[in-house]
Every structure is written in structure tokens, then in C-alpha cells.
Amino acid sequence: MTHYKYMWIHICDIPKAIFDYYNLGPLIHHDHVYVEIRRGMYGLPQAGRIANNALIPHLDSHGYIQCEHTPGLFRHLTRPIAFCLVVDDFGVKYRSIHLMPGQSPNTVPPPN
Q1: DSSP for 20-86?
Q2: Are the C-beta atoms of residues 25 and 51 closer than 8 Å to each other?
Q3: Cβ atoms within 10 A of the Cβ of 45, count?
Q4: 112 falls in which pLDDT band (50, 70, 90)?
């Protein structure tokens, strides 16, 4: 996010534990707290883009690249694994469970 976003949150929407932990009492103005959003946040229109921008370098460090002509479609450089990221969900396609890092046939139920 190149520019921070700002919003008012009504104090009834802030859990008491959060309110107390961050000592928000002195920041109340007309029953609201003005907040600065520096990262993604549920409901923020840019949340998907922010998450995607953070995800791509992470996937790249594990050998996954985004396909040139299909945004959101990723494939592994050496393994026959591909997945499509859609908003905040994804599906994985693979040929063998043994190709999935950290997985074994005993940890994943067979497909229906």
C-alpha cells in the first residue's frame, strides 16, 4: 500500500480486550476512534492486491512463478504442481501426493 488509508471505528465495534490493551480511551472522539490502515484489512477494497503483492515473493522463494498470460495462476518450476489464486481462496492441482512438500498419503484423504 503506497498511501495509508484512514477510517473511523465506533467504539462499540472494538472488543474490550483490544480497547484496553492499546489504551484507546484517550483517542475517543464522539464515540469513535480514528485509525490508520497500513496493511490489508478485511473489507478494504485493496486487500486482495495487498495480499497478492506479499504472496508473490513468498511463492517465488519456494519455486513457484505466476504464469505470464494468466494472472493468479501459479506453477512450480520443477514439479508438476499448479494452482490458481482467486481473491482469498485457492485450489491446488498435482499429479502425486508425493510431489507435495510435507505431505504423505497418510495425511491427506483420498479424493472422492
Answers
A1: HHTT-GGG-BTTEEEEEE-S--TT-TTHHHHHHHHHHHHHHTTTEEE-TTSTTEEEESSSSEEEEEE
A2: no
A3: 7
A4: very low
What cell numbers appear for 47 in the block? 486487500
Q: Which of 33, 35, 44 is nearest to 1 (CA)?
A: 44
pTM: 0.48
Domain ranges (residues) in the chain: 5-37, 47-99
What share of the chain in percent tops pLDDT 70?
70
Residue that wins the pLDDT comparison between 34 and 54: 34
Residues in CB range of 95: below 8 A, 6 or more apart? 80
* Residue bearing cell 478494504: 44
